[in-house]
Design brief:
Layout: H1 7-23, H2 26-33, H3 41-49, H4 67-81, H5 87-100, H6 103-114, E1 119-123, E2 138-142, E3 145-156, E4 161-170, E5 173-180, E6 186-192, E7 198-211, H7 219-252, E8 254-255, E9 258-259, H8 264-289, H9 297-325, H10 336-349, H11 353-366
Parallel strand pairs: 1-4
Antiparallel strand pairs: 2-3, 3-7, 4-5, 5-7, 6-7, 8-9
Helix pairs in contact: 1-4, 4-5, 4-7, 5-6, 5-7, 7-8, 7-9, 7-10, 8-9, 9-10, 9-11
Domain Acyl-CoA dehydrogenase/oxidase C-terminal: 225-345
Organism: Streptomyces castrisilvae
InterPro entries: Acyl-CoA_Oxase/DH_mid-dom_sf (IPR046373), AcylCo_DH-like_C (IPR036250), AcylCo_DH/oxidase_C (IPR009075), AcylCoA_DH/ox_N (IPR013786), AcylCoA_DH/ox_N_sf (IPR037069), AcylCoA_DH/oxidase_NM_dom_sf (IPR009100)
Amino acid sequence: MDFSLGEELEAVRDLAREILTDHATPERLREAERSPSRVDERLWADLASAGLLAAVLPEADGGAGLGMAGLCVLLQEQGRVVAPVPLWPALTAALTVAAHGTAGQRSALLPGLADGGARLTVALEEFGPAGPLAPWTTATQDGTGWLLTGVKAVVPAPAGAAHVLVTAATDAGPGVFLVAADAPGAGWEHAETTSHDLSAHLTLDGAPAEPVGTPGGTACADLVRYARLALAAVQAGVAEGALGHAAGHLRERAQFGRPLATFQAVQHQLADCYIDIEAMRVTLWYAVDALAEPFDADAADRAALVAEWWAAEGGLDTVHRVQHVHGGIGVDTDYPVHRHFLWGKQISTTLGGAGAGLDHLGVLLTGGEVTA
């Protein structure tokens, strides 16, 4: 299987790396972390003006049609420098609207996202054991519309998002619903996260909503699958960036008259990190390839869950080892590598973490039914 990117994806990678590296300086990161939204709005605008947000959208919606592959390339570059912009929630929502939304939903939402003027986010998680594919939040039909009731936990990047895609249970099965952020019956409670991003808990009390796709159809599975791959891509970049910090640090620091990088125990630690990162890359791109035609939903889900497991386990192991080899400076909260540790920790627990992913994978492999 050929996992080379090709010219278009390499162009996205190179442009994204240039913009993100120039913007994600320690000073800019601190500035964004102290802002009300926790988002680098200038960077978001620059990514939009460079066409990188539109690149993932279908050509019919004004994009370049690079889809999930283009998004994963962009997210890996974001993770490498831990740039505070809400790419994964906004663009996984956009891909879901592009795939399942009505013509009216696509024309209302996607152009604003492409030019950076509007944002979407996703509400997938809940308190308790409810998994993203078996939500406790309910959607009931009210005439020609729908009403949502329930609580969604840790909704990422709510600041600046005019709409949110919410997963909810219906009599026909789980569905995806579009809710205006200021809709009647929608209440927000802001919450801090490990990675310094701002999130929010969303309480829905009969909030009006529009279905995205057919309730009980494939939209919910697609959105969750996109989210798994997006988080795995960010984590691969986070781990790669952390390893780069470790290599630079160990080349420069000396002990007993020798660079720390020449000590075998340290080399073994970084070798383990390298192996984990390569496994994360391979499983990620295998899962992206599984989205191609002819499409097999079960095979795509299995591949996405394997990629998610490697991102959670391998990514967390990598940022732990990197922080360890930095010694005392690794726990300095203002030192660059500490942000990689916080991002790696946050991503490793999103959507239930490695354990929940393994449980789901086991259900798929045994032919069972996902109930959480």
